């Protein structure tokens, strides 16, 4: 077991929120330490699954998600951020300095903690799903991120909540047709969202359908051939009948899971399980613990809003440390 001296700021998470918090606390000379995560987690967060980011201001020609995260990291390191490729296994927030233990058994203490652990899009758990998503080959969990790559295609959205309705409506801007596949007849989505989607002539409905298989074909990309989604096999929940729905893209919209396990019982969560900040700040009920990014945001969930909230957390942490 290794014990380090007490840090001023430790940041858990390495998405846009975490690195922005590191950039700001680094420039404030607080020598932040970022726990980026390690396998099976992927340092860099959800943008590591995004091929092209076209909606982050400052990149007029777009930028690849992983490349953008490398730039975030480089900028934070320029101001003295220390990055650790380790997972945090447990935290003790009951007294200051706070104590963090890594999966490798390192024990770390810190006067302030910024939580930027993000949220994970839920997937259907079908074979090839994750692989195709990672390689940008027809599977996505973010219409805002990837919709524009599917101009003129027939698309499938899976889910029956507000996210599915919203994604289906958004995708009608690009797709020739959007088929909404849901495993029941009733929707979790609000009536107004269902009505809006129902009124759209590009949206078709496949209800009581459970996705069971992703259908792929080999497609030539440059000199390589790679598996590409061409459809989704579904089974009717009542009759058991199976069929393949053809599609150029599958958007999985079955909810997100905020990554809050480490803080269970210590910090307040809302009815969806997201951490709750105190009004118009990144503060929590524990002085010295700040939250930012998707772990505290079930509404906007964009790279730019996460980065903005990372800046807020850094400023709140800086002021807290100055006052103590
Ligand atoms: P959600 O409300 O939890 O809905 C998830 C949907 O996915 C449900 O219909 C569920 O089906 C389905 N589902 C879950 N696991 C599945 C699986 N393994 N296979 C097939 N289907 C599966 O999640 P959400 O739509 O992301 O919304 C989360 C929260 O954000 C909600 O409170 C929502 O109101 C809010 N939100 C609001 C807006 C807006 O107001 N504009 C937009 C987006 C999200 P079952 O119904 O059968 O369980």
List the main descriptive attributes of the protein structure presented here.
324 residues, alpha/beta, FAD/NAD(P)-binding domain, 7 helices, elongated, binds NADP nicotinamide-adenine-dinucleotide phosphate
Describe the protein in words.
The chain has two domains: 10-120 and 257-323, 3-Layer(bba) Sandwich (FAD/NAD(P)-binding domain); 123-252, FAD/NAD(P)-binding domain, CATH 3.50.50. α1 packs parallel to α7 (303-323). The model has no long low-confidence stretch (mean pLDDT 95). The strands form five sheets. Strands 1, 2, 5, 6, 7, 8 and 19 form a seven-stranded mixed β-sheet that branches. It has a five-stranded parallel β-sheet with strand order 10-17-11-12-13. Strands 14-15-16 form a three-stranded antiparallel β-sheet, with no helix packed on it. The longest helix is centred in the C-terminal third of the chain and has 21 residues, at 303-323. Helix content is 23%, strand content 30%. The two termini are 29 Å apart. It is an alpha/beta fold. The chain is elongated. α5 (162-171) links the parallel β11 and β12 (177-182). NADP nicotinamide-adenine-dinucleotide phosphate (NAP) binds next to α5. NADP nicotinamide-adenine-dinucleotide phosphate binds next to α5.
